[in-house]
Amino acid sequence: MSLHILFFASLADISGMRETYLDAAGFTDVQSVFEKFVKDFPALAAYRASILSAVNSEFARPESPVHDGDEIAFFPPVSGG
Amino acid sequence: MFQLVREPIDIRKITDGIQSPEDGAVLVFEGVVRNNAKGKAVRFLEYDAYEPMALKKLEEIGFLARREFEIRDMAIVHRLGHMEIGECSTVIVVASAHRGPAFDACRFAINKIKEIVPIWKKEFYEDGEVWIEGAP
After folding, report:
1. pTM: predicted TM-score of the whole model, two decimal places
2. Lower CB density within 10 Å: C or N end of chain A?
């Protein structure tokens, strides 16, 4: 099992991917997952203050726990309508 | 009725589907693609979404609107993908006995869409393109 990670809009452009899978071991919360990707893609650091996240399609907070099999999405503030 | 679509939105189909004999007001809001943003000429837009969550949030807005306002029903359809100037990106239809709650519920819904529904627009200009982050 693993974490299913999704990126949208500018975050997909920065990471160069819309989705990836991550071994869940060592990740406890949303923040720990995001920081792993900041290491891989330093430009993501600029989004630390504004980024939104969701776990299994519901808004999450940095301290929200993550579990094996979760779908975790990262995205900028929304601009639909 | 809450939908994400990739083709032009058929507004008449939505209003026909929602209207019922007890309604005295059927209100339609259309969000359309504007040819300018912050003083820059916009050529066209593209919308992207986290689709399962976006649909869930549209349904949630409908639920909240029906709970909060004296309306009978609401439908929201948001189009995704490429859209030209003047095309309709969002349609909200509210059906109610009286006009007041319909206007209030419609304003509530479009404001909530711009706050909690994971959809993003990308503006294409003569000299580049930018993902819009956050709604005014």
Report:
1. 0.95
2. N
Q: What pLDDT is attached to residue B24?
A: 98
Residue B73 belongs to domain with CATH number = 3.90.1170.40
Q: Predicted ipTM?
A: 0.94
Residue B134, domain member (yes or no): no
Q: Which residues of A touch B131 (CB under 8 A)?
A: 9-10, 13, 76, 79
Instruction: Say whether B50 and A6 touch across the interface (CB within 8 A).
Output: yes
Q: CATH no. for residue A34?
A: 3.10.20.30
pLDDT tens for each residue of B86-97: 999 999 999 999
Segments of chain B assigned E as strands: 2-5, 25-32, 36-37, 40-41, 44-49, 73-79, 81-84, 88-96, 119-125, 128-131
Within a domain: A81: no
